[in-house]
Write a structure and sequence with these properties.
There is one protein chain. By secondary structure, the protein is an all-alpha fold. It contains 11 helices and 2 strands. The chain has a two-stranded antiparallel ribbon with strand order 1-2. The longest helix is centred in the middle third of the chain and has 35 residues. It starts with 12 loop residues before the first helix and ends with a helix.
Length: 311
């Protein structure tokens, strides 16, 4: 038998994640705390979602998630014929999507959460504290997922635990998943009580902003060198995270009465985090801050009108 030393295998994912957790303690604790809270909320509502009154909300949520998936796929289709669009137009388009997400978070998630929690606890102060708790959990969840999920930013490059072990296409897919999951969760939470006044304007806003988002994703994949059909297929497939997130969202906000405002706050916090951490910085990297901001204001105003008309 040869005594030649054999190079050890590269560390497995479990060892890699543990090492990353030790070097990023606050993010690891925050992710663990938020996942524990999400697990508790899901567990206490499982029976209610499947057999109780929340089954109606589940059907609405899955329809909303399916519509968001279809919008993402529809938005990606023009990338079969377009290799790119002017950077200024792309930044305006993403700014518009960011404005709709911000307004949806405020008008269709946080404000209904405040109203529900205040009525339940008979105290505006405790109602606000309940929604802030949900927001905190949502931000901790997204911070942890951003730190521990390997993904790729088009301008700043790869990041997250173990990104060097993933192919470029998977890094793109994980990055898009971090955007789509909180959107789907928001749809699910919005419909959790089968309240169309909350869920319908929120789902409509997310569906509308998923069209330019789907195009932006497909064009980013094309600019990275992927063939047009493959880029469109991958961009469309990432929309599947919308119905998955919607299913999680229904589970979060069903069951105990207090779970509803906490779930609304969690989804709202997660969406605001994504807009501030990912979307807005992306629109401001190329010197088009003013057009992108005007696009954001237009998206915010449009969502405000939708919420008033449909809410």
């Amino acid at each position: 038998m040869s005594n030649t030393p054999v190079a050890s295998d590269p560390p497995g994912w479990r060892r890699l994640l543990l090492r990353h957790a030790r070097s990023h303690g606050p993010a690891a604790w925050g992710l663990g705390l938020s996942l524990l809270a999400v697990s508790v909320l899901l567990a206490q509502s499982l029976q209610q979602v499947i057999f109780g009154e929340s089954a109606i909300g589940l059907r609405w949520a899955m329809l909303g998630g399916a519509a968001a998936f279809a919008a993402t796929a529809l938005g990606a289709v023009p990338a079969l014929f377009l290799r790119g669009i002017p950077q200024r137009a792309e930044d305006i388009m993403l700014g518009f999507a960011a404005g709709m997400m911000l307004a949806a978070s405020a008008f269709s998630l946080l404000l209904p959460g405040l109203a529900a929690a205040s009525d339940l606890l008979v105290s505006k102060a405790w109602g606000a504290a309940t929604v802030v708790l949900g927001m905190t959990l949502g931000v901790l969840l997204m911070l942890g997922l951003d730190e521990f999920t390997p993904h790729l930013h088009e301008k700043s490059g790869p990041c997250g635990a173990g990104f060097e072990r993933c192919s470029r296409i998977w890094l793109f897919v994980f990055a898009i998943a971090l955007h789509n999951l909180p959107e789907g969760m928001a749809i699910g939470v919005g419909f959790a009580q089968a309240d169309l006044a909350v869920g319908l304007p929120l789902a409509t806003a997310i569906v509308l902003q998923d069209i330019p988002e789907g195009l932006a994703v497909a064009l980013a994949l094309r600019s990275a060198g992927f063939a047009p059909p493959f880029a469109v297929a991958v961009a469309a497939a990432t929309g599947l995270l919308e119905p998955v997130g919607a299913l999680v969202g229904v589970g979060l906000a069903s069951g105990l009465a207090i779970a509803y405002p906490i779930g609304l706050g969690l989804a709202g916090g997660a969406m605001v985090y994504v807009v501030s951490h990912e979307v807005i910085p992306e629109t401001h990297r190329n010197g088009h801050q003013t057009p992108a901001t005007l696009g954001l204001m237009a998206g915010f105003a449009m969502m405000m009108v939708l919420d008033t008309a449909l809410g």
